[in-house]
């Protein structure tokens, strides 16, 4: 969780072992959420950076995220270096949507890029 100055909760991040893989070095970004009026202020990058540090510290080497096509988060994840690795069609209720997978192949490279993550 992340608090803004003054103590207001502005967002959270959650991630861990990749759910669809047996390999212990693969991680997944399960969720990253920010209040809409807090987006574009660096809070998302700080949350992402905290997750990357945590995962790398626990031996994970790569990170994936799945996002629905058309979700603005896809552009953000690409800006942060996520590379598209594929997509699939999923059903949500009565609607079929495209879900895109993005991957960061090496967490150590994210940490050594020199861009601030926190």
What overall form do the CA principal axes indicate? globular
Order of helices and strands: EEEHEHEEH
Number of helices in the DSSP assignment:
3
Biggest β-sheet, characterized? 6 strands, mixed
Radius of gyration: 15 Å
* First-residue to last-residue Cα separation: 13 Å
Uncertain segments of ≥5 residues (pLDDT<50)? none
Count of DSSP E strands? 6
Q: Name the beta content range.
A: 35-45%
Mean pLDDT: 88
User: Structural class per helix/strand content?
Assistant: alpha+beta
Instruction: Report the helical percentage.
Output: 10-25%
Side by side, the strands of the main sheet go 1-2-3-4-6-5
Descriptive report:
The chain is an alpha+beta fold. The protein has 3 helices and 6 strands, in the order E-E-E-H-E-H-E-E-H. The chain has a 6-stranded mixed β-sheet with strand order 1-2-3-4-6-5, covered by helices on one side. A hairpin with a 5-residue loop joins strand 1 (2-3) and strand 2 (9-17). The relative contact order is 0.18.
Labels describing this entry:
24% helix; globular
Question: Can I get a quick summary?
Answer:
The chain is an alpha+beta fold and 118 residues long. 24% of the residues lie in helices and 40% in strands.
